[in-house]
Each structure stands twice: as structure tokens, then as C-alpha cells.
Write a structure and sequence with these properties.
Layout lengths: L6 H9 L11 E5 L2 E6 L2 E6 L5 H14 L24 E3 L11 E6 L5 E6 L3 H18 L1 E3 L11 E7 L1 E10 L7
Antiparallel strand pairs: 1-2, 2-3, 4-5, 5-6, 7-8, 8-9
Length: 182
């Protein structure tokens, strides 16, 4: 398996349980009796038999200093609008974004207004347009398409609700297969 730049963040994002940062690596989470962090493509999890955050942090700082990987956080994180974003909610999925194989890999995040936003990554504009069409068909069968979206999203954009895991949750958003270089 070839490790990608997003690997460390991806694993970290799925294990993170809150926003109690420990100041280690590129991002970290301290949740006694554990501390997790990532640096570049590496993910580190420390677990103690008793709660001692000072020792966990000291060990994490030592380990982090030994990791020689200058890779920055994934650039895609910066594409999420900041207004209302819960930063600790950003997650990376190497495949099956939103539980759909056709969406492939990507990121998702939650906002304070209970909205969810996702960013799917494709090799080409054609692949993105095909996935958007498939997703629209899926939503029209399992959720609902909502009329009226801002014209700034483009002519192929649409808005819908996608049931997530239970009937009380929904994913809302306007989608468009626009090309954007990261």
C-alpha cells in the first residue's frame, strides 16, 4: 500500500473524540487516559492505564519530535467554509464517502446549524459529473430533491436531503461538478 499524504489525518480524524487539542503534531486530541495525534502521514495513539495527561503529552512531544515528515495537513481542509464549521468534525474517508462507493474518497464536516458538507475527490471532471448524476438519482429515490438553489452554483447544481443512518438526520447541500484545483 502506498501511503498518501492524507493517511495520518484520515486515521486521526476518525479516532478524534472532541476538540481538546494537546498541541502535538499537526493536530492532536487529549482524552484521558489517551492522546492521539498525527504528523504528516503518521498517526500515533498513546494509551495509559491511568489518567495522567502530563506524562502522555511529554511522551507524545518526544515521539512527534522524532517523526521526520514535513508534510502539511491536507489542503482540502481549507476548502470548507469557516462560518459555523465545527473543526473537530472534519473527517477523511479513503473510500465510500457517505456510504456510497461511487463517491469514492473525500472529506466531510459538520456545522453548528446541524448541516453537513462533503467534498468528494475525483480524477477528472467527467468522473465528478458522473458521480453527481448518480448521487442525484440515488437521492431522488431515497431522500428528496429540493427546488431552488443559488445560481452561483452553476446550471448542473441541485439541492437535496440525504437520510444518514436514521430518519432524523439529513445531509443538505447544493452540489455542482465544478473543477477546482487544490
Amino acid at each position: 500500500m502506498r501511503w498518501k499524504r492524507s493517511s495520518g489525518f484520515g486515521i486521526f480524524s476518525r479516532f478524534r473524540t472532541g476538540d481538546r487539542a494537546a498541541g502535538v503534531g499537526l493536530d492532536s486530541c487529549l482524552d484521558d487516559p489517551s492522546l492521539i495525534f498525527y504528523r504528516g502521514r503518521y498517526f500515533v495513539m498513546l494509551y495509559a492505564t491511568g489518567a495522567n495527561s502530563a506524562i502522555l503529552k511529554e511522551m507524545a512531544m518526544l515521539i512527534s519530535s522524532k517523526i521526520v515528515d514535513p508534510s502539511p495537513p491536507p489542503k482540502e481542509i481549507s476548502l470548507f467554509p469557516k462560518d459555523g464549521l465545527r473543526p473537530e468534525s472534519i473527517q477523511y474517508f479513503p473510500e465510500g464517502l457517505l456510504g456510497h462507493g461511487f463517491l469514492g474518497r473525500g472529506f466531510q464536516a459538520s456545522y453548528t446549524d446541524q448541516a453537513h458538507l462533503f467534498l468528494a475527490i475525483f480524477r477528472s471532471l467527467k468522473d465528478a459529473a458522473g458521480a453527481l448524476k448518480t448521487y442525484r438519482t440515488t437521492i431522488s429515490k431515497t431522500g428528496k430533491i429540493i427546488p431552488g438553489i443559488p445560481s452561483t452554483f452553476g446550471p448542473d447544481a441541485w439541492k437535496g436531503e440525504d437520510p444518514i443512518k436514521d430518519s432524523s438526520s439529513s445531509c443538505k447541500g447544493a452540489l455542482s461538478p465544478r473543477r477546482r484545483r487544490v
